[in-house]
Write a structure and sequence with these properties.
The protein has about 140 residues and is mainly alpha-helical. It is built from five helices and two strands. The protein has a two-stranded antiparallel sheet with strand order 1-2.
Length: about 140
């Protein structure tokens, strides 16, 4: 099974489409999910340390305050667990595998964009011009 297949009459990406239920597709999607989850964990801890963000997930908020190591372990094991689950079910339930990986990566892309947003706002707030600007 190939990850990329030339599809006739398919628009976008030059007529190629990604198959998340293929072996390579699962590996790539799970790796992207792992990278985004790791980025989320690091940026969340950094933002909390700077007091510029607040953890939105109430379960993770409790874990961060009481057991930060457990927070990191869960953040890193979640994409591994989903990747293994999808790998084991890649032949029996293609639709579930495709949706699970697609939704997980999509959510973490949005979360990463939120992190980018607060980082840009934080950096802007540190510039001398913005510090001296008074809005009355």
């Amino acid at each position: 099974m190939a990850i990329i297949k030339r599809a006739p009459n398919c628009t976008g990406l030059g007529g190629f489409k990604l198959r998340l239920y293929s072996n390579k597709g699962i590996i790539i999607a799970a790796s992207v999910f792992f990278a985004l989850s790791t980025l989320d964990a690091v940026l969340t801890l950094w933002g909390l340390n700077l007091n510029v963000i607040r953890e939105a997930n109430p379960v993770m908020r409790v874990l961060i305050t009481k057991h930060p190591q457990l927070f990191l372990i869960l953040k890193l094991l979640t994409p591994v667990a989903l990747g293994l689950y999808c790998w084991w079910n890649r032949y029996s339930d293609r639709r579930l595998v495709t949706y699970a990986l697609g939704i997980a990566v999509g959510i973490y892309v949005v979360v990463s964009l939120f992190h980018l947003y607060w980082i840009v706002l934080y950096k802007i707030s540190l510039t001398p011009f913005v510090k001296n600007l008074r809005l009355v």
